[in-house]
Amino acid sequence: MSGSGTPNPPRSAGVGRGDIVSQITSDLNTLEGIQADLATIATRDDAQRRHDLIQLRRDLAAQIANIGKVADPYFASLPDPGLYLAFRERFSRMRSAAAIHQASWPAVTLGDDPGQYQKSANSVREANHMFINWMRAQLSSA
Questions:
Q1: What is the predicted pLDDT for the residue at 2?
Q2: Which tens digit of pLDDT belongs to each residue from 40-67?
Q3: DSSP run (H or E) holding 140
Q4: CB–CB of 24/77 below 8 Å?
């Protein structure tokens, strides 16, 4: 995160490949942090948790968008088109998992069925984890 608990803004165009890899790596770290913060929400029972969940979901959506804005053109520019297709598939799977979970579990239902909520949230965390690990592997070989 950029220090204030919000997603990192995308950097301007015209930066070098190393800078892009650094930004994507930073964005992945931020995504991981937001996901960790979301994981703690289900364990809380205070009045503020629904508000915090809504804000973290906004942060998650913004961070996923940031990653797409930087990583999509990066992978599209690589000589192996298969890597771009692999990125798009993994990115879409991760983004879809978050969207389905949020649509299935609006903030007002937090606490209604903790077991099912946790099961759904775990699938989002797993999709994020798989995406982040794949991205880091690709970036480390860049």
A1: 42
A2: 987 888 989 999 999 999 999 999 999 9
A3: helix 114-140
A4: no
pLDDT of residue 141: 87
* Among 33, 38, 30, CA closest to 54: 38
Low-confidence ranges of the chain (pLDDT < 70): 1-15
Query: CA-CA distance, 81 to 25, in Å (whole number)?
Result: 21
Residue 94: its pLDDT value, please?
97
The answer to whether residues 50 and 105 touch, using CB atoms and an 8 Å cutoff, is no
Tokens read off for 1? 């995160």
Q: What angle do CA 4, 128, 6 make, to 5 degrees?
A: 10
Q: How far is CA 83 from the centre of its chain?
A: 19
Rg (CA), the chain: 16
Tokens of 35: 């996901």
- Pair 104, 120: CB distance under 8 Å: yes
Angle at 91 between CA 18 and CA 116, to 5 degrees: 135
